[in-house]
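Researcher: Please translate sequence to structure tokens.
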Amino acid sequence: MEALQLQKHDEWLAEHLDELVTQYPGKVVAIHDLEELEEDLRTLEALG
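Model: Translation complete:
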């Protein structure tokens, strides 16, 4: 993974990790593809 991409992942996690842990209590949160995760979170938010 390129350094710039890794930095982007790190910054995103720093901003959103608490939100993920709150949304999925008792679950393991693993980030594979940052852009796909952001899209999934937008979809979940839209669904209510």
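Researcher: Any highlights?
Model: Residues 3-47 form one domain.
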